[in-house]
């Protein structure tokens, strides 16, 4: 029996959403300051309006909704999924006011793409965009990579009950530290430390490559945010091709590989347990799938004769593949090359890499390496069970921070998520094909959106059909939250209309309760 | 005799290694030679959508220089766009064209860029230039980049600063929202004073 949410359930969820929105509003202060420093008055006003909308929303929820004593798992999921949706709508206000979007739907698309660290964009005339707006685009993906819930937890949920449930609902299950608020702070510590190193390195490289100090600093900040968050945004329309620089490509490749690793793995390495890199199922899975897809890509590219030397193959082929596998989306070729020049085999290798994706509890998307590792172990278990005597007890384990025995519920959960991702990729590809796009292009961009990668074979653009825009927004959102929180939100909506009031739970007609 | 043979062998081996390096770095004469057919004026979209057709051909493009002039090693990289926004950008008051920017990286000799004063950005319209050069689908000199190596660069129209126009309604909108936020703040504060247990 589905129960209708009560008023205090709705108030608890609204309170949590309000706190998330306050976090988004506070983030807008960064591009607001950049706009003021750069004398971009129009842009500064856009962010002032956006901040005030977020701030007013928070004040509205705070004045109507008391702080809950506790937050249930269901409420946590609704806070996360609903909060993400509202954060997207309000975060799109500065986008829309900038004048670079044909419609508010396009603005929502870009903000969702940022939060989910996808990197697809519908923004028009990127090369004439203000510094303030470019900062906001990249900050969206940096914040989204950490998780906007993580941001809110770090500063706005201290002492609140239910913080763990809200944290887990964002697709993260790793607790670096016993307290989830301290876990959120640890994630920020890791990210900010890498940011200091990354911006310094990229700034030095860009100066050497001929950029002016002012632009070089801004670009280094933006490129790091885009790479570390595996978002793939870049400040110019040519993306990484704009720089024509091997050092820039190597630096961004290093940072997006680091960003795609599990935060818990980073924490283990920081604590001195470096062997975890070699033993961890995710790094092993990633290495195997990367090597396999690279071999397929090499065979495919060899057939086309596109890249005649190892240097070009590394810079163009391998870079794109790692960008796809980490679900980053940084690109140093023209999008059209994926389907016109790469050939079928190499293109399929990129699609497979995107579909598998990065590590869990990282900034990356996709199906996740740990699930690939679990599936492999499950397959081994089945084969070993068949080959072993009937009386034998066969078990499998894998190593992820500690040794974990494989269990049926775990495998079932993995297969469920695999089915969700697979269906998302397939439906998007089908929808694109129905609109007349070539099937391999439609599938490429659908997988890119659902896995939060952001590479495009040419389908995504301002003139794409609105139904595809809506589908991709939902696919990016659902893929980033790994579906369960989204189902919770849908369930709550259904319960609101069809659920029974809790007072109707008594058995009717018998005069007594069981 | 034996010494002469050794020297010849060493010489031959060194020549082979040098030849392989030159070949792999793409400095061989066969790579440098551009197609000798007449120069074709093309749009950058034509180049990008027909990479194979225009590979190593001499072409002419015209567009706005955007972003940065990145000087390095005797030359410089510039980016040239020829989309609708290169005529009139959105900050200038241009219309939405339903497309993203279309541009290409151009490798020019150092002295050629001295003529460039403005590059396209939020606050400026970039110089409009006409460039003749060799198009590379996969440039061996630049790690496989798709680029254009300029043989000539001509200034067509000088760029200029763009005056920022702030719409009249934005200020009052921000003021109205600030007033709303203030009213909500007072309501929340009053509620907390009545019930101090609420955070």
Commentary on this structure:
The complex is a heterodimer of chains A (514) and B (199). With 514 residues, chain A is mostly helical. In chain A, strands 1-2 form a two-stranded antiparallel ribbon. In chain A, α10 packs parallel to α11. The longest helix of chain A is centred in the middle third of the chain and has 29 residues. Chain A is globular, with a radius of gyration of 23 Å. The C terminus of chain A is likely disordered. Chain B has 199 residues and is an alpha+beta fold. Chain B is 34% helix and 30% strand. Chain B has six helices and eight strands, in the order ααβααββαβββββα. About 13% of the residues of chain B have low confidence.
Relevant terms:
heterodimer, A: 514 residues, mainly alpha, two-stranded antiparallel ribbon, globular, disordered C terminus, B: 199 residues, alpha+beta, two-stranded antiparallel sheet, 6 helices, elongated
Overall body shape of chain A: globular
Order of helices and strands of chain A: HHHHHHHHHHHHHHHHHHEEHHHH
Question: Between the first and last Cα atoms of chain A, what is the distance in angstroms?
Answer: 15 Å
* Rg over alpha carbons of chain B: 28 Å
Q: Which strands sit side by side, in order, in the main sheet of chain B?
A: 2-3-4-7-6
Roughly how many Å apart are the termini of chain B? 98 Å
Helix and strand run of chain B:
HHEHHEEHEEEEEH
Helix content bin of chain B = 25-40%
Strand content of chain A: under 5%
Instruction: Evaluate the radius of gyration of chain A.
Output: 23 Å
Characterize the main sheet of chain B: 5 strands, mixed, barrel
Estimate the global geometry of chain B from the Cα principal axes. Answer: elongated
Oligomerization state: heterodimer
Count of helical segments of chain B? 6
Spans of chain B of 5+ residues with little confidence (pLDDT < 50)? Answer: 11-35
* Neighbour order of strands in the largest sheet of chain A: 1-2
Helical residues, percent of chain A:
55-70%
Mean pLDDT of chain A: 88
The count of DSSP E runs of length 2 or more, i.e. the number of strands of chain A, is 2
Structural class of chain A: mainly alpha
